[in-house]
């Protein structure tokens, strides 16, 4: 029977998933059959996809990719690893978005920020005490390498301005706007739409405080612009930025980027 095992086509004389596991791995290994982790043995069909995952070891590149694919929807990973996404701003939104995109296997990420990690960032941003004082670009690049060492990461430790938007973001499919200040958000969105032909932008507005997370949504504002958030709750005195709603909004942005990379443009 021909099967796809850890990303490679193989002919094995096995009728069940656990027979494959016992043939190439160990009894304690995890078995994922056609995207779903199984606890009980299953009979196999021609061209089934199986991943046998050993715990606590770094697999080879092609094996890691096949194991990630095993947990995704079939054929999604091939599209994602061709994707090129730029993230402008690596704070509460951008740092979490970058990690999500790394976990789903987006092939190339550009991390753009001029700041360093400060103690106040730890309440909602994807950094740790060990990162304090480091440039956010470098701290995040190190983390992503621990999650998926095989994707390409470019960094730009630079403040974005109207004059350098085209130079920084040219060549990317999607720009994820993740700035804190409204004027910076507006500048990036307007300049990118005007100067980068065909670029898609996923932006955010309104995720402060602790209102219901159900108020955060994704809206298609125009052809190439998507906006995530509740569009109301900006940070101000008495209403700070807190991890739950910030990360819900970051999840919306990351999910919209995923959909766009898969060619799904309607919300």
From TrEMBL:
<keyword id="KW-0548">Nucleotidyltransferase</keyword>
<dbReference type="Pfam" id="PF00899">
    <property type="entry name" value="ThiF"/>
</dbReference>
<dbReference type="InterPro" id="IPR045886">
    <property type="entry name" value="ThiF/MoeB/HesA"/>
</dbReference>
<dbReference type="InterPro" id="IPR012729">
    <property type="entry name" value="ThiF_fam2"/>
</dbReference>
<dbReference type="InterPro" id="IPR032726">
    <property type="entry name" value="ThiS-like_dom"/>
</dbReference>
<feature type="domain" description="THIF-type NAD/FAD binding fold">
    <location>
        <begin position="69"/>
        <end position="266"/>
    </location>
</feature>
<keyword id="KW-0808">Transferase</keyword>
<protein>
    <submittedName>
        <fullName>Sulfur carrier protein ThiS adenylyltransferase ThiF</fullName>
    </submittedName>
</protein>
<dbReference type="InterPro" id="IPR035985">
    <property type="entry name" value="Ubiquitin-activating_enz"/>
</dbReference>
<feature type="domain" description="ThiS-like ubiquitin">
    <location>
        <begin position="1"/>
        <end position="56"/>
    </location>
</feature>
<dbReference type="InterPro" id="IPR000594">
    <property type="entry name" value="ThiF_NAD_FAD-bd"/>
</dbReference>
<dbReference type="Pfam" id="PF14453">
    <property type="entry name" value="ThiS-like"/>
</dbReference>
<dbReference type="GO" id="GO:0016779">
    <property type="term" value="F:nucleotidyltransferase activity"/>
</dbReference>
């Amino acid at each position: 029977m021909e099967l796809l095992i850890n990303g490679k086509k193989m002919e094995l004389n096995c009728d069940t998933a656990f027979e494959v596991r016992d043939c190439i791995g160990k009894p304690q290994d995890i078995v994922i059959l056609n995207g779903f982790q199984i606890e009980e043995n299953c009979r196999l069909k021609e061209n089934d996809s199986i991943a046998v995952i050993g715990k606590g070891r770094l697999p080879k590149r092609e094996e890691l990719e096949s194991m990630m694919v095993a947990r995704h929807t079939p054929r999604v990973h091939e599209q994602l690893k061709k994707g090129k996404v730029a993230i402008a701003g690596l704070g509460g939104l951008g740092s979490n978005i970058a990690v999500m995109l790394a976990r789903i296997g987006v092939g190339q990420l550009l991390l753009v920020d001029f700041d360093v990690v400060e103690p106040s960032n730890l309440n909602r941003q994807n950094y740790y005490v060990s990162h304090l004082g480091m440039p956010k670009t470098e701290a995040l690049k190190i983390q992503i390498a621990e999650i998926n060492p095989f994707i390409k990461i470019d960094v730009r430790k630079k403040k974005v301005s109207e004059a350098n938007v085209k130079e920084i973001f040219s060549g990317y499919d999607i720009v994820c706007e993740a700035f804190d200040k409204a004027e910076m958000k507006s500048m990036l969105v307007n300049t990118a739409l005007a100067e980068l032909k065909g670029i898609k932008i996923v932006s955010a507005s309104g995720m402060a405080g602790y209102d219901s997370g159900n108020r955060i949504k994704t809206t298609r504002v125009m052809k190439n612009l998507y906006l995530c958030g509740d569009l109301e709750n900006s940070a101000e005195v008495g209403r700070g930025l807190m991890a739950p709603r910030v990360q819900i909004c970051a999840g919306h942005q990351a999910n919209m980027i995923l959909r766009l990379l898969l060619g799904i443009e309607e919300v």
